[in-house]
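Predicting holo structure, magnesium ion bound.
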Amino acid sequence: MSVELKSVSKTYKNVKALDNVNLSINKGEFFVILGPSGSGKTTLLRAVAGLERVESGRIILDGKDITDLPPHKREVAMVFQNYALYPHKTVLENLLMPVEGEMKREEAVKLARDMASMLGIGDLLSRFPSELSGGQQQRVALARALVKRPKVFLMDEPLSNLDAIQRVSARKLIRDVQRENEITTLYVTHDQVEAMALADRIAIMNQGRVIQMGTPEEIYSRVEDEFVATFFGNPPMSLVSGKVLDLRGRIGVRPEDVELGQGDMKGKVTDVEFWGDRYLVYISVEGEEIRAFYPYRLRIGEEVRFKFRKYAGPWS
Ligand code: ADP
Ligand code: MG
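Done. Tokens:
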């Protein structure tokens, strides 16, 4: 199912949580909404789920206007950050909740078992949520959403309660399940590494607005906006005054686009971090800080020459 948002706005008291948002998500696409806390991501998902009324604009599912439909009439399922499992119900009972009264119990149990085994929690069905690890609870929440057989999957930072190692395996699992079932997915995160790893396309949000949209590769190679520069890439671009290149405004430079050891610019090494296959070097130039990758460890205080292979901007 395709999902379309047309000029969607939503204001809380004096906060514009969504400011004229336009998105067009293709059938089967894994679409990531990336933005810092407070940028409107949750509001956007809740609007698509029907949990939040929008004040203007339309929401279209497969060509059908669902703006005024109640949540249960929309064929979407939402997975929340805090899983929201029922503590006094077993895993199996949790999985059956969304389809209660909609099919024969036998049939529902079979479906629940299938989803559970797909997510590797088939042997946990008689446990209670308190008897599960965070990662297992998260799988239960995913399985529960899948039992609904949604046409659209809405996920609101579903991995943020997991530790770093669990996150990497869980995001692979989500991606596999999404692909296998070809479920159109809107996935919200503030983590750009997660966004790049998962997304077919990304929309970057700030203050209720979509400020750049594209495939991870497109956004990475063509940063259109100073805010995106500070937010995308690991580590993100260094923002420096255009003066260093005789330009007005500010420019953004990725650490891998700084060529150390030659060039017209000169700076001093102020810090070095070991990154495994290379070092991240901090260089100070006329009060500006530039980060650069380099294959060898440099000494702090050392003078270095460098040039930029490319940069984004300038932005005023
Ligand atoms: P995100 O999920 O990106 O962190 P939210 O969609 O939760 O952002 O919030 C967007 C903005 O709307 C924030 O400024 C937030 O404080 C505000 N907001 C969200 N929900 C409410 C609410 N129920 N009442 C008032 N303000 C809200
Ligand atoms: Mg949120």
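The longest helix spans residues 164-181.
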